[in-house]
Input
Amino acid sequence: MINQWLVNCLSWGMGCLLLVLANLSQAGTFEIVEYEQALIKAKFDQKAQIMASWYEADQAQAVHLMQLMLDSQLYYLKQDKRLYQVEDASSGAIAQRIHDGGLITLKKKRDVKRVSINNRLRSVFRQRVTETQLSAAKPQDRLAAAESIIGDTTPELMATIARLRLGETDASVLAAFDLVLAVATLHSSNEDQQRQSIRLLGESLHPASLNALNGFLLTYPQSPLIPMVGKYVEQINGKVDFYGSLETIYFGLSLGSVLVLAGIGLAITFGVMGVINMAHGELIMIGAYTTYLIQQLMPNHIGLSLLVAVPAAFLVSGAVGILIERGVIRFLYGRPLETLLATFGISLILQQAVRSIFSPLNRSVETPLWMTGVIDINPLLSLTQSRMYIIVFCLTIFLLLLAVMKRTRLGLQVRAVSQNRDMAKSMGVRSEWIDALTFGLGSGVAGVAGVALSQLTNVGPNMGQAYIIDSFMVVVFGGVGNLWGTLVAGLSLGVANKILEPWAGAVLSKVLVLIFIILFIQKRPRGLFPQRGRDAKG
Amino acid sequence: MLRNSFWKYAALTGAVAISNIALAADTIKVGVLHSLSGTMAISETTLKDTMLMLIDEQNKKGGLLGMQLEPVVVDPASNWPLYAEKARELIEKDEVAAIFGSWTSVSRKSVLPVIEELNSVFFYPVQYEGEESSKNVFYTGAAPNQQAIPAVDYLINDLGIERWVLAGTDYVYPRTTNKILEAYLKAKGVAPEDIMVNYTPFGHSDWQSIVSDISKFGSKGKKTGVVSTINGDANVPFYKELGAQGISSADIPVIAFSVGEEELSGIDTAPLVGHLAAWNYFMSVDSEANESFIESWHAFIKDEDRVTNDPMEAHYIGFNMWVKAVEKAGTTDSQAVQDAIIGVSVPNLTGGLSAMMPNHHISKPVLIGEIQDDGQFEVVSSTSGLVVGDAWSDYLEGSKDLISDWRSPLSCGAYNVKTAKCSGQNY
Amino acid sequence: MMRLLNNDVGGRWLIGSLLLAIVLIPVLNSLPASSSLYFPTYSVTLLGKYLTLALLALSVDLVWGYLGILTLGHAAFFALGAYAMGMYLMRQIGDRGVYANAELSDFMVFLDWQELPWFWQGFDQFWVAILMVMLVPAVLAFGFGYLAFRSRVSGVYLSIITQAMTYALMLAFYRNEMGLGGNNGLTDFKDILGYSLQSDHTKMALFIASAVALIIGYLLCRFITTSRAGKVVVAIRDAEERTRFMGYRVENIKLWVFVFSAMLAGVAGALYVPQVGIINPNEFSPLNSIEVLVWVAVGGRATLYGAAMGAILINYAKSYLTVELPEVWLFVLGGLFVFVTLVLPQGVAGLLKRKGTE
Output
């Protein structure tokens, strides 16, 4: 074994050679401790060599260590220079010794140092790990490993796969193996084999298949199989376009739900109450900062903290909203344009307050694990999970709000006050109380939107500014005072934006959408779904 | 009524006049021109604090020329014309000996005519697009050849990148950098169809389509890398979207020129591990100078969690160069300082010496760092020697014949070696 | 002219002070710098800038105070005028740019442009630039107003779409493909009409030009508001439907006042640029438009002189506070918004008027 290592080493260069000589002079056998210490001392380019020889010596352990390094969990204790697995290096954390599995508790964070790797090592290790995953126990691991090497293999790996294929029982893994082999047999001299490969690749949607077929077109322009390949390529391209447009619509819907979320609180305060609330963006910001604070309070339960943050943000932003209504806005009813000025002033004050309290720097809000990742529909279409949650969250908020406005007593009173204040008053509705609650509701919903946005973008003093104009556009386009209008407007603006983006660019598509809104308002001055009644004048 | 408005007017003019009376000069005043409110406050407030710390330390060492230094801090409120107005105020009214300030290119461009007209001294600490060399400005941040070119070299040689996405915010720094890189890559034999260029507006927040495009661009069988000149606020949603679409640094590495420790402190860095940045300084650099700089920064700001970054180092270098030049000239007179500062070299924080070059740019090492999950960078590569900042890029059509040398007899910021003519400032 | 200022004490004071400043400031500026009455050139330019902003406030007051349109997009007209002037100043640089290209500006060389874009043609002529300063905002205002007023978009909807307009323009001007310098905008101007912008005399001349423009602008606004048409304008503000039923072509009157106001804003922008030395897309920012409203509200809406006064006062406060108490500035500005709308709906002018009648 040592000889084998020596041979490998020699081909790798001097650094390794010296290492080996040093080791050999100590003892005849090669101990794990020597690997460990070599790894700790090594520079980046030596680490690959050390791990490669370790792999030769003890495949399972080497792969385990590579995986740990990939996950940034491999550390060494400065004291004894041995390797440990540490999940989260902080004082009091548990560290597990690699060679005997013994556990120790860290006194200080600085007692341990991570075994660092760089990108090149990362890809080398990943490849090694993938290779062993090809014969992993779980079929989904094997599938993932097989898919990752389609179109990217070595002859040795092909031999391995051909061998593994014989014993494989899972149908989808088998199909992936076949694709891997098909890419190779594409270049075979046997035309029948080639035809078979082309058929296999032509029916798969994997991007590597298309690349392989395109490669075929370039490499063998004289081949009689060209028309067949051309037909398949055309067919795949058609599917690529189809799924591409599905993806665009999904992107549009998710952008649209962000717009709806940002605008829906405004649909209440502006749409129902007629208050032009320029501080709306800052209420979203307050919701996002609430999320940040809750995460600070429960750092070990990121997922849960997000769930807690939803009601918390609703309450905090709602309370701030009620404060604004009681303190300023109630003196300005009937003067909508002046509420614009006053609330703009409030927005400046809130921004600077956040800057003074939290510093002007952005705050980091973590994304829980269950929100990351993608849902693979097929190799051409995968939907991002976080966006899926945002869409669902948006619809939930919308339906809840709709239920509150249409089905509850509060909703009834809100609508009564907004339609005819005096009549409502004479029917015993406490209109002032309703005003405050309505504004609180709208503000609270803005806060909830802030929780969602904290998962997508910066949490900082300027974040409100980024959404205020879009929010107004959505509400005005949809028709003031109509929740359904806001939903339809938000989603359609989102989709329109995403459809325009590929050929107009991100900036121009936004400009075009704005111009469209301006022209649309000329045509239908009350938006998509105008509110009926004589009181509806803006 | 009559009296009221008269006094209002009188008070207005009076206040302007009184505030203009020069104060007695027993201190040397140093202007600090960084935005403390508005959109740029996020980056610039730290630099203001850095300047206050450096001045404070210098005073503890006995000041300069036997006098104490006095910082004059003003807030241009992220408003570009206000930068020019405040600069004029600092020079004409407060009579500062030098100004340290600005972040964005547009704010520097706004200040430039004022500084040149009043023949003052200005230190600009941020990496920028080059294509400029003023007699009065000292560029302590990186020029494109001190950041972009070594970064691309690293991607080619160490990561084997063959397909390139140049993604940036639509303004002059990314435009220029990407133009230089495009020319550089083509000169290295990269085919035009292997380069994708994309521009987005400031604060762009919806990256779904672009990240999906990048991912498709990268699925064509060649190893793909992204060179990001995306600015400030747009970075967080960009990286979040990369993470959301499951693109890791091993699939498609991103190397950024505008993302440093401070930007990372506002991001959850777990999904970013392994992505890269190119700078001339990282907080994680192991050197004595850096160790003591971080220590005094933490003591000054009274917060152990605050990070240090590249523009802070640039101010550190620039301020020390200015101090040394003033000592050399024996006066704070701006003309004398401009003459004295060329050739001055001071320690940088990475353990070497940086020198002020005749083109008013400085020599620095270039480091490539990988993002770690604690928000710090691990240096994975560094240039063997110092790289001298190049004011005029050799890869741009308009500027490849231009050189800059502010020493006499040439004394010119844009000298065309082909036509032997000087253009730009004073010509 | 005196007829226009009948019953307008504030206006008489405004014009009186401006005339006084035109005479006095050059004298004070020529005193030796050691004199306690010396008025430094730096302050002259600053005051000149305030006056151009006062002119902008005047144009907003005409639309908001008299037409009742809460415009959230007047900064667009201001910026367009400023860009037109900036283009002239860019052309005046000639071959003194860093790339020494007589035909193309530095940023065009930079972006590899081979020839001057068509819309830059003619801007080397001062009269073309001056024409464009008024024409471009006027055309935009006409097109926008024609559509909006004819379809009777009003109130909040109108406000929001004026905001959409300036926002769309801002995004468009940020694009480098626009050919107007992108984010950096236009800067590094050298001279105007052959006079160096750095010379004290030019600066004084620009200050005087700003003061004269403000006087003329004020008188024109006053003429509009006190004329017969002006009475109709106020009638439109207070009861649009009734005025319409009385047979007035409400749309046309609104449109022409709107267009005039846009031209005034354009002129203000044109005078602003040479004094601050840079124009960039940030001037289109919706935030700027809203800030102008505060100047008008603080000074006193629908008084004209109040708007001018408010602009000068707040901008002076801004210059002062951003130096003395940088962190407090936004609190003060925000507080002013709330305070004025709640306590001083008539602004400072209203306060003075009340004092005067007491």
